[in-house]
Amino acid sequence: MRERLIVMGAPTSAGAYGPGQERAPSALRAAGLFDCLHQRRIPCEDAGDVPGYRWHVDRLHPRARNGEQVARVARAVAGRVRAALDNQAAVLVIGGDCTIELGTVAGALRQGEQLGLVYIDLDTDLNTPDSTDDGALDWMGVAHLLALDGTVPDLAALGPKTPMLGADQVLYFANDNSLPFERAVIEERKISEVPLAAVVTDPIGAARSVVEGWGARFDQLLVHVDLDVLNGDDMPLAENCRTRGLLFEQLVAALKVLVAAPNWVGLTVAELNPDHGQEDGSTLRRFNESLADILACSPGLKL
Questions:
Q1: How far is CA 211 from CA 29, 216, 274, in A?
Q2: For 54, phi and psi rounded to 5 degrees?
Q3: What pLDDT, in 10s, does the model give residues 140-163?
């Protein structure tokens, strides 16, 4: 168990469809994130932001846009995550688009240790530049972690080994949307999944089954949250606010169980666009309060 928390921002929208997510780390700080953490007596440190990037059109690489910038940010995240874990801290990485998970995983990989990733997202992010022509890398992240054919070599090789993860090291949680190409990869490689319907029915039970079953065999457990998993009518913070998905209270309930796992070491929050909340900041404040409640469930972070 990790007995303190290091928070770092990854202010990037390089892999997204447009700008906005790069402002999330500063917006969450301004909305009182550290006040919430301190109120719950969570030992924490702000490691600041890695150098970020605001989305721009990349006409030179239409099928894998801003790949160089995605790689640069992910490498910086990897360095800070590695340093935090080496110092026996847990990490909270605030993005930013979903490509920051490449950095979180790359930084967490250790020789001789087994790493598991719980990937909470409506989408499965298994597309490649060959399978889709829209060019947004933020729905290709898991494909690069697995180094699927057709992925960008510089991104797939960000970690100390390639592929960074095997298919048995990824579990999809609350997924409900995959293209035929992605579904074929999931079935061929037998990637574990707890679909949206199962999480909606029993978010605590679904998370507990992951912690006590699939997740128990790993030395370290990472959790990735794409806020696109949320029903946008209930909590309108995601880059892509949909009218289906988890209620915010369901996501919070599941995360409390996952973060309480004895092998949990890191949480990445991605795809938050500050413009999508209430103008008075109340949506961000509610999010911060709940995020602090989630982290307070980690046994090592309780004073």
A1: 30, 6, 31
A2: -95, 135
A3: 999 999 999 999 999 999 999 999
Pairwise CA distance, residues 84 & 90, whole Å:
7
DSSP 138-163: GGSHHHHHTT-TTS-HHHHTSSSSSS
**Residue linked to tokens 């048995």:** 168
d(CA 92, CA 49): 12
Q: Which of 10, 43, 14 has the alpha carbon at shortest distance from 28?
A: 10
3-class secondary-structure state, position 59: coil
Q: Are 84 and 139 in contact (CB under 8 A)?
A: no
pLDDT digits (tens, 9 = 90+) for 121-147: 999 999 999 999 999 999 999 999 999
User: Considering the entire predicted model, what is its pTM?
Assistant: 0.97
Look at phi and psi of residue 248 and say left if phi exceeds 0, alpha if psi is from -120 to 50, else beta: alpha
- Tokens 């707890």 locate to 194
pLDDT band at 303 (very low <50, low <70, confident <90, very high): low
